[in-house]
Amino acid sequence: MTKLLIIVVLVLGVLAVAQLARVYELTSKLRGKREEDISAGDNRMNAMLMWLFPVAYFGFFLWLIYKYGPHLLPIAASEHGRSLDKLYDFNWVILFAVFFITNILLFYFAGKYVYSRDRKAFYYPHNNKLELLWTSVPAAFLAVIIIYGLRTWNQITEQASPDAVQVELYAKQFDWTIRYPGKDGVMGATDYRLINGTNPLGIVTAQSIETRLGELEEERSDIGKRLDTEILPDDKIDELHDRLDYLDRMRGRITDLRTVMNEDIATKGEASPYMHGADDLVLKEFHLPVHKEVKLLIRSQDVIHSAFIPHLRVQMNAVPGMTTTFKVTPTITTDSMRLVTKNENFDFILLCNKVCGASHYNMQMPLVVEPAEAFATWMAEQEKNPFQPDKSPTQAASVAVADSSATGSMTTEVVGATE
Ligand SMILES: [Cu+2]
């Protein structure tokens, strides 16, 4: 209500000023003056205002920085984050300098060269040296910014070292699932066709293939039973037949996958990614060790998401059908960050930074950065309970129901099922 009143008052104020100006114009016309006749006093006042305005302008600008600067992100808690912030600050220094210098000159000259009857503007059409100067100086500054920027960018995006800790961030509408490679240190292969309630990432193991085939078989026999025993309308019968066709196709593809897996294991042995899924850790918790290089492997199940860890200055799109990566070395633990920010509830956070649907705003997960020993202890605790796709289909179904409803519905959607 107050806001509305303020707006009304402002609008009325503008109208009043416009009307006053009009009255002033009319009276000067009556006095036989032309509109463009401006008195020397008016000119001097405008020149004065040209000098006063930037004082208010810069004052307001500096106040904004003072007032809202502290609401920016706290210091970067990762190695590349610091160099990124340095690059940022470097750019700001140049921008601020140019902003202040050009604006001061602009207003200073506008005020200084106030109109005078006795003075004529100096005609100065061209100067090659001057042109060269104001082209080459900004060009040199831009070159520095670009080269510095590219160097920083290349450092950030270069390949992670082979012994980096691997962590997968798996996005779907609307949550994150975290995968660690388990004791063998290697992530297992995945395939979306194996996604179900107990295998939200579709990790490929002999067991998960059998489980999935069992599920398909169970659904097939259920549908068969319905077709044999129930009296159904024609469109429902067609629908069930379509479903059976779909289940057959899916069974064929998963059987093919099993063949591919067996051949790959036979030829590559331990090097086959199909050998490494069984001990993977699929978690709803996200921990990272401090001062260790981490390679984030980022995937999506459905639409484009974006993995964003603002305090680590990490951001990378999660694109369906491909794995994107980002390497990061955290430098500050959660506990230290709580001291730095003087906020005992501070938590690092993994957000989705791509508007991905209705609950996008809530797609987040806290991140714990801890000393290597604490991380190892936590990891050992998790390793007691590795990924288990080997529950029977009935168990899997009950887990799927007990799991968040989003997981259940997305699972069926991904494998193309319709109820
Ligand atoms: Cu998202």
Give the helices and strands, then pairings.
Blueprint (H helix, E strand, L loop, with lengths): L1 H29 L9 H29 L10 H34 L15 H30 L7 E8 L2 E6 L25 H24 L4 H35 L12 E3 L2 E4 L4 E7 L4 E5 L4 E5 L5 E5 L5 H7 L7 E5 L11 E7 L1 H12 L9 H10 L2 H10 L5
Parallel strand pairs: 1-5, 4-10
Antiparallel strand pairs: 1-2, 2-3, 5-8, 6-7, 6-9, 9-10
Bound molecules: copper (II) ion.
Would you give an account of this structure?
With 419 residues, the chain is α+β, with helices and mostly antiparallel strands. The protein folds into two domains: 39-116 and 124-157, no CATH class; 165-414, Sandwich (Immunoglobulin-like), CATH 2.60.40.420. The protein has ten helices and ten strands. The strands form two sheets. A five-stranded mixed sheet has the order 3-2-1-5-8, with no helix packed on it. The protein has a five-stranded mixed sheet with strand order 4-10-9-6-7, with helices on one face. The protein is elongated, with a radius of gyration of 33 Å. Residues 391-419 have low confidence and may be disordered.
